[in-house]
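**Sequence with structure:**
===
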Amino acid sequence: MTIAEELGSFSAAVNPAKLPLAARDTLRWLLFDVVGLCVAARNNDYVQAARASAIQNGTASALGHSGSFGPYDAALINGTAAHGEDYDDTFEGGPVHAGAVIVPAVLAIAEERGLTGDAVLRGIAVGVELMCRMSLVAPQAIHKACFHPTAVLGGPSAAAAVAAAIGLDAQRTMHAIGISGSLASGIIEYLADGSWTKRLHAGAAAQSGIRAALLAEGGFTGPKTVLEGVHGFYKAFAPSKKPDFAPLLDGLGSEWVLETLAFKPYACGTMTQPFIDCAVELAQQGVKADDIVRMECEVGEGTVHRLWEPLSLKHAPPNGYAGKFSTPYCIAVGFIDGKAGFEQFTDARVLDPKVRALAAKVSYVIDPANEYPKNYTGHIRATLKDGSVREARKGHMRGGAHEPLSDADIVAKFRDNAKFGGWQDNRIDAMSAALERIAEMGAVDLQAARG
C-alpha cells in the first residue's frame, strides 16, 4: 500500500465512539476554542474582507455573521477568522494549527449535508490526527522552503477529514488526499510586512480540503503516491530533508497524538509564548523597564528566520499583526502590560515608544542544545544599569502537553473571546449548549452562531 492508501484505510475506519476519553476531550475543546475565536474576530477588517468575497448561498454558517453560505465560503471565512489572531491551538512538534483548518471544513460540510455530531467528531479526529502527524515527517523543512506548514499540510488533512465525515470509503479517501496535493499552497512572505495572507492560509486549506473530498466523491482521481512520490508532496514542499514517514504511520489508529494539542494562553506566535512568560516573571520580580540595559535570549535556530530576523524589523514591527511574530516585541509588551491579548497587538500599541524602546534592547543567541521543534522553551537574561543580572527560564510552553490549560481555562477563554466579539451571556450559553451536543455526538445546530 502507498502512504495515501494507508491514510485512506485509517480515515474510513475511525469510530468516534471508540476514541480514548482524552482524545474526545480534545475534540470538544477544539470546537469551543475555534468557535470562540471566530466570534472574537468577526468584526475585524480581514474577516469582513473574506466575508465580502463570498459568492455562494447555502446552508452553512459563517460563525458570528448573519445569513448562510455555501460550504466553500463558510470554510474560508471561519478558517480565516479562527487563525486570524494567532490565538488558536498548536501542535508543538510541528508546528501546525490544526483546529483552524479542520473544524471549519468539517462544520461547513456537516451543515451542508445535514450530518450529526458523530460524523463531525469522526472528521475532526481524522483531520487533526493526520495534520499533526504529517508535520513530523520532515521537521522544519517546510518552513525552510518558505511555505507555511499549516497551509500546505492543512489541505490533505482537511480532505481526509471531510472524506471521513461524509463517509467515503478508503479508496475514495485516498484519491481525496491525492487530489489535495495539487491544491495545497501558502508561502510565508507575510513576514516581510505583516500583511494578511497567513490569516487566509487556514481558511484556504479548509476550502481546498472540501474541494478535494467532493471531487473524489464524484469519481475524480489523484495520485496514490502523492506523499512519497518522486514528484510528490514532501519533495515539493520540504525538499531539504528526506522524509521519515514513521511518525505519520506508527501507531496510527491506536495512539492519538492529538491528545497533546496545545491551547494558547497568548494571542501571538507559538514560539514567542514561553518568552512572554519569562518577561512577565521578570516584571513580577520587580525589575523596571527603565533599569534594563539589555535582554539576551537563548533560542532555537529554527525559530530565528521567522521570529528574530531581520532584527531591526522585529524591534519595530510595522503593525499589530507583524508584532505577533516578533519575539522582541512580544517580550516588551508582555513585560510592560503583563499580558498578550488582543489589545496588545493593535496597530496603535506596536507604535508605543516605551514598548519599542524596550523591544530594541532584546537580542538573541542560538542555543545548539535547544530542543525546537520537539519542545518550545523560553529564556531571558536581563542586564540592569547597576550591573546586576536577572534571568528567567521556561522549560516548556504553557498550555501544551507539559502544562496544559484546565478545562475551566478553555471554557473561560471561549466565553471571553465571544464577549470580545460582542455576544451577550445568553447567546454564549446557547452556543455552548450547541457545542456540547455536537461533542456528545448529537445534533449539529449552529443557528445560535448566526447574526
